[in-house]
Write a structure and sequence with these properties.
Chain lengths: 419, 419
């Protein structure tokens, strides 16, 4: 894409109302736009990143047998009442609204009750189980404070998957598969090294612990205790002598860190299926409640985490899998027609080879182009100038390492194809 | 995909609370699930159709230079107040909600004010214009009645594109390009023949008329008067002697029809840019308000329209571009291992050739499989049975025409590749 055509622009200064690094950089780069505290639009560059993350998560959920669907934001009060979670005294971050006839509706902060109700139409026999469904859908949470950029939003997109099993063993098997799928997601987005499977409180769902995936960052709101050797952690909320002894962990082997929760998985058991009546007939013909699990990844927060973890003092540094473009073609032709033609030709060659290129064809100074390129954080910068034309080689600079190399077109193409 | 793995099931009977044909068939086929009146979830089959439509619309919007983004559902009261449209007496289908501190928020029923406000951050000079941005985003409308299935929803997805121009001529040029893009969309989804560019009231936006795209169907809520020769129509709401004489149309050349609005385009002019202060400096350095246009297509309604228009008494008939799968492989092996192996082999061959196949591998009677296949409406049914194995040819039945042909695997593959 030609950068001159993009309707967004970069900003030198972070808006004064943004305190978090992720929002400061994403707003400055023209990735997102703040509508109000905790509510951001995705601009064209940001949406490209969003779709990359979404597709990675989709592929991994499909691999474990998840079937994609989309539920609704507007939710039925009656269904929530059956699970005792409609009352604002029980759930403190509801957004609610009303039909013209004054019937109250909820704006989904989660979809467990809705999918439990929905599945009653399709699950009746042991032959229908196990199964799993997921969606990418808006969640609304009426957060009292929203100051962490896209870490804690009032409106955000979650991938939420729900599993439905006949018995505990089947749930356990799926749960283990989900852990591996989550590991694959975090590895693919480049956060695997910094992400720990973490024991957390099980909430009100009957099981003692749930699991979170926590990624190390000083911007995180959580404190976790890491065992590096076993690549696991314990959330401060369940960190006690009792927990440690249960897990066979010794305090002196653990390290305290700040982290952000990038995923969570719960064994729901029959918490929703019992009150809502989601049952199946087993092989003996007896009615049994379905055993459920719930598996979430916040897409926005994952993007924010990648920004927090990889950014440097010059701007964003995207891991390749998330970058809006693979190559930033910085065109220093400055009116020189021959150089301009070379830039155009390079853009064509790369695009035809299937490489996503942002071509900075704007009529601005070189210094401004380099500063913007640093801010935007596209993995490989390729500079086209009088010099490159004369040498027959382009200067190629990796955003993450700063490493520069001079490559001919065919060297560049084979480098990009090797990825 | 193996049909036995799909968590949804078909239903013989339409739910008693569905009166519209589109919802009856889509619910029976397991395409959608009703959460409440006017609020439907998309199940795996329905989501496949949804994404087909979305991608067609996306491609056509990209061709006219639209840049994809995503705005938010939660909206700022203050921005709406500046355009005089916050008051429930002015806009009668608002859903509203509140922050914890009692600040009122709106749930987007449209995004004109939001994008006008947003663009103030990026448009300042004539050099920034023209530009256009679009999104696929939820809209919320507090409809008093919602009885037309997915024709009139309380929550739905709209593609809304907004154009920003320096002057009327630039707007007119874009507007014409948008008309052609809309024609391309309706042609590609198979509704081109039945869809008419229709003059409608311009609303409060200063221009006399707006344009709608209306598709003929008895399920439509609108009445239009068609001039077949000129392939245009006049909505009843602006049908008058004065309008006809302005357009050079004679009453006797027009035909009255029921139709559904599948798209609408408006010249907004400065209706939003003036109160919200979206201006640009022209070449002489003077501040001018940006000239805007707005272009909508309701994705859900387009799907519902295709169902209404093409369905027959046996079920849905998808046009190829919208079908969740290209081929329905009806497997009549009924326990015969050789036939089963042949079905599996055929599934593999087709899938490897890039054909999307739903393989009905369920353990149910042939009659039930055929009835479900009719209901689901996949364009080509390929039957694998003892007979096909012996003949070395598969019976291939087109859902739309009922035409049957017997094809070898290679004939079938070349038929599918020819599309």
């Amino acid at each position: 894409m030609r950068q001159s055509q993009l309707f967004t622009k970069t900003r030198r200064e972070a808006p004064s109302d943004e305190v978090s690094k992720n929002a400061q950089l994403l707003v400055r780069g023209g990735y997102i736009h703040k509508e109000m505290a905790g509510v951001y639009s995705y601009l064209p560059l940001g949406l490209r990143v969003f779709k990359k993350v979404e597709q990675i998560v989709r592929e991994e959920m499909n691999k474990i047998g998840g079937q994609e669907m989309v539920m609704t934001a507007l939710q039925d009060k009656e269904v929530w009442e059956k699970t005792g979670r409609w009352d604002d005294a029980v759930v403190d971050n509801w957004f609610k609204t009303k039909l013209k006839n004054d019937t109250e509706l909820g704006l989904a902060y989660t979809h467990e009750p809705a999918i439990t109700q929905l599945m009653k139409g399709y699950v009746s026999s042991y032959r229908d189980l196990p199964t799993a469904a997921y969606q990418f859908q808006l969640k609304f949470r009426n957060e009292l404070r929203a100051k962490s950029g896209i870490f804690r939003l009032r409106q955000f997109t979650m991938k939420d998957l729900y599993s439905f099993s006949k018995n505990q063993k089947e749930l356990d098997t799926f749960y283990e598969a989900a852990i591996e799928a989550y590991r694959a997601v975090f590895n693919r987005v480049g956060l695997g090294d910094k992400t720990y499977l973490t024991l957390a409180s099980g909430g009100s769902f009957g099981t003692k612990f749930s699991h979170e995936f926590q990624t190390l960052t000083s911007a995180g709101e959580d404190t976790i205790y890491i065992h590096e050797g076993r690549k696991l952690a314990v959330n401060k909320e369940v960190y006690s002598d009792e927990t440690l002894s249960e897990l066979g962990l010794r305090k002196e082997d653990l390290r305290e860190e700040k982290a952000v929760e990038v995923g969570n998985i719960y064994k729901l058991g029959t918490f929703y299926s019992e009150p809502l009546g989601l049952t199946f007939k087993d092989e003996a013909g007896a009615n049994q409640p379905v055993i459920m699990g719930s598996y979430g990844i916040g897409i926005d927060r994952l993007i924010g985490t990648a920004v927090e973890v990889f950014a440097d003092d010059k701007g964003i540094v995207w891991p390749e899998a998330l970058a809006p473009f693979r190559v930033h073609l910085v065109d220093l032709s400055a009116g020189n027609e021959e150089v301009q033609k070379d830039a155009q030709e390079l853009y064509r060659e790369l695009t035809e080879a299937g490489v996503e290129v942002l071509w900075d064809d704007r009529d601005v100074r070189a210094g401004e182009k380099f500063a913007d390129s640093d801010l935007l954080g596209i993995p490989l910068r390729v500079i086209v100038s009088q010099k490159s034309l004369e040498a027959g080689r382009y200067e190629c600079v990796e955003r993450a390492s700063g490493t520069a190399a001079h490559k001919t077109l065919s060297e560049l193409l084979s480098h990009l194809r090797a990825d």
